[in-house]
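User: Could you go from structure to sequence for me? I need the amino acid at each position, not a summary. Structure tokens:
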């Protein structure tokens, strides 16, 4: 049995008239992750695509993540519609032209391609793929009109009204099964089904920094290894595991008000050095470690895309983070998303830390005045970010990429596993 997943491309920029090079919009780049998520458990063996950029880019995120090389198939390209084709204000072919095509598959406008011709070459390309990749799972990047003719070839009841209903669905997936070249069945899959409920929109987004926008895990590993090399200590990953336990407890003590920030910085390394049996001046080590940590501008997957999407809608992003000012400021100012950040508030400067309501009172006093109904805080920490949002009277979103269970009694307004899922709130 061969299974084919036809992937109709995500939203593209209609202002670019050259179909071969037309790119995806910012929304399209975000929405293509729905394709990645959908295909991730389908045991795909090969990825084919139309040679048009919007089709390639829609399956590129999946292909890059799972290390597939996309094979371009010229005959999977979209219809050549002809010169001077009548178009609507959005640049799409007029309904009159489309209806004429569907009433007569041999209808031709100017030097354009008929639906019959489009269908023949796409079916020929499909049959070639079925022969070459028999009994495998295939993903194919394709287009609205090209895909609609393939569907019609196997289901003659699929007509003009069905085609019109499909046009706004970007991306969209059709699953077909074949025994050799014999068609078995078809399933049409709307990737947006889980997102249909209209989400509340926000104007201001307060993002936590570490493990929400910035990959603290990578930054920490880089900084620790660099410092151990500097001190001439042997570094192993198990050392970071020990350090993380010690550091996490120190931060919990700090957030609970049991120790000061100054104490935290030295206590964690005093305890680490004692545990692993090495010696070094902890103040010197901490100072150099923080400098290295500040150079670690690694980003969480999806951070650039969601930040750009928010700002493109004239919404604002502020960073609200516990930590040392110099370290956090260095990471923010040198990161790829710095242009999207309106301002940042670091507990080491504010004088209070999340979830203390006084921290948020300081933030609210230094950002534009908007209703709290229009503000959301996003973070990975239930005890700091979500509890802080609850204390401050604003909606909160728990960023939970690892699928942890919540048995804390601290309830977020929302929960997402991917940063790009936040686009529904923009």
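Assistant: Here is the amino acid at each position, in order:
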């Amino acid at each position: 049995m061969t299974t084919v997943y036809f992937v109709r491309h995500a939203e593209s920029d209609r202002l670019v008239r050259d179909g071969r090079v037309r790119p995806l919009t910012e929304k399209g780049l975000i929405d293509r992750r729905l394709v990645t998520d959908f295909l991730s458990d389908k045991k795909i063996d090969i990825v084919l695509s139309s040679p048009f950029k919007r089709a390639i880019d829609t399956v590129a995120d999946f292909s890059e993540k799972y290390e597939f090389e996309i094979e371009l198939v010229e005959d999977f390209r979209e219809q050549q519609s002809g010169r001077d084709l009548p178009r609507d204000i959005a640049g799409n072919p007029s309904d009159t032209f489309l209806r004429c095509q569907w009433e007569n598959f041999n209808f031709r406008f100017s030097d354009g391609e008929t639906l019959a011709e489009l269908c023949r070459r796409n079916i020929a390309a499909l049959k070639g793929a079925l022969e070459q990749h028999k009994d495998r799972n295939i993903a194919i990047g394709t287009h609205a009109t090209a895909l609609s003719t393939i569907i019609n070839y196997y289901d003659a009841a699929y007509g003009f009204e069905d085609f019109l209903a499909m046009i706004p669905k970007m991306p969209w997936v059709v699953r077909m099964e074949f025994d050799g070249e014999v068609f078995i069945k078809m399933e049409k899959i709307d990737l947006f089904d889980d997102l249909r409920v209209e989400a509340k929109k926000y104007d201001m987004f307060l993002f936590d920094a570490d493990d929400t926008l910035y990959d603290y895990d990578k930054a920490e590993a880089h900084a620790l290894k660099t410092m151990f090399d500097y001190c001439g200590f042997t570094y192993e990953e198990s050392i970071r595991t020990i350090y993380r336990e010690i550091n996490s407890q120190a931060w919990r003590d700090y957030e609970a008000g049991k120790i000061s920030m100054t104490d935290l910085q030295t206590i964690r390394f005093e305890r680490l050095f004692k545990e692993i049996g090495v010696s070094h001046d902890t103040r010197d080590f901490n100072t150099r470690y923080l400098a290295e940590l500040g150079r670690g501008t690694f980003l969480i997957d999806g951070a650039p895309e969601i930040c750009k999407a928010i700002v493109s809608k004239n919404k604002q992003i502020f960073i609200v983070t516990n930590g040392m000012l110099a370290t956090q400021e260095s990471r923010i100012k040198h990161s790829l998303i710095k242009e999207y950040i309106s301002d940042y508030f670091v507990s080491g400067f504010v004088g209070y830390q999340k979830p203390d309501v006084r921290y948020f009172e300081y933030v609210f006093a230094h950002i534009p005045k908007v209703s709290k109904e229009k503000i959301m805080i996003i973070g990975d920490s239930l005890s700091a970010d979500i509890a802080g949002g609850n204390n401050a009277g604003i909606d909160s979103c728990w960023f939970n990429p690892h699928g942890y269970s919540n048995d804390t009694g601290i309830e977020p307004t929302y929960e997402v596993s991917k940063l790009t899922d936040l686009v529904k709130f923009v």
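One structural detail worth keeping in mind: The chain has a mean pLDDT of 91.
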